[in-house]
Amino acid sequence: MTPADKGGAVVVQNFSSWKDKGLRQLNDQSAYARLPNDPTQDIARKSNKYLQQLRTENVIDENTYKWGLTEPGSCKTPYFYHLPKIHQRLDNPPGRPIVSGIGGPTEKLSKLTDYWLQPAVKVIPSYIQDTTHFLQTIESWNSRGPLPRECLFVTIDVVGLYIPIFQITK
Questions:
Q1: Above 50 in pLDDT, residue 168?
Q2: What are 94-134's pLDDT values in tens digits?
Q3: How many domains, the chain?
């Protein structure tokens, strides 16, 4: 059993089918590359070095620096899994790939980045927090009268959102 990608459903699926879908995604060499070794501890050291630079330049205070440090031996290697997209197809649904960074070498840097960016992101005119906020925004448009005929609503289905920008090598 695994949760569905959307809707809060629980999906019961043949394990070998689920595993094959994951392996098929991981074997897509345009999106993933097999690394010669696990870079987790090296990434933890680089993250700490970056935090040290931020501290030296007084971008962050001592408490933030200490909070953000990752003990190289204590972090986990992020792992890959996928969630079935039953909203697209019930029979043999595709999977949405996820790399879980919980406990990983950049988790704390990610939290800091999110904390710093939230105030700026929330004032961007196109910012939509969630489905409820989207519906409230549409309702506010409707309360001002009909939209012009040339308005067009468009949806996008992103495939391969996280393409590799670089490859970590020995």
A1: no
A2: 888 888 889 999 999 999 999 999 999 999 988 999 889 99
A3: 1
Residue 97 domain-assigned (yes or no): yes
DSSP symbol at 41: H
pTM: 0.70
Residue pair 110/101 in contact (Cβ under 8 Å)? The answer is yes
Q: Is 154 within the bounds of a domain?
A: no
Distance separating alpha carbons of residues 135 and 129, to the nearest angstrom: 11
Q: DSSP string covering 63-91, please?
A: HHHHHH---GGGPPPPEEEEEE-TTT-SS
Question: DSSP secondary-structure letter at 102?
Answer: T
Element (H, E) at 2: strand 2-3
Helices (H), the chain: 15-26, 40-56, 62-68, 107-121, 131-143
